[in-house]
User: What shape does this take?
Amino acid sequence: MIIDTPEKTELAHEALIYENANGVIYARFRDEPKKSKFKGRWIIGGELEAVNEAMGIVSYDQWKNLFALADKYPTLRKQLDKTLDVYYIVKDKE
Assistant: This one.
């Protein structure tokens, strides 16, 4: 499970375990009680595309490809239009 990066005060003087998986570098606490308090690991770096994928961020190339495919598949176009409608509604409320 990916969690938000803990505050600097939580990280001070704590042993961490670093893991490299699929181009993403993660950190997690090694010892208790922080290990129980922060269940999971957080991203600290890695290859840009791999990090974006791990965080659920769509790249510009993927976005362009998605809209190109929407021209071929009407169902995809309809869903993208609905998503954009929701985005515009939410954006205006912020």
In short: The chain has a mean pLDDT of 94. Residues 81 and 87 are 10 Å apart (CA to CA).
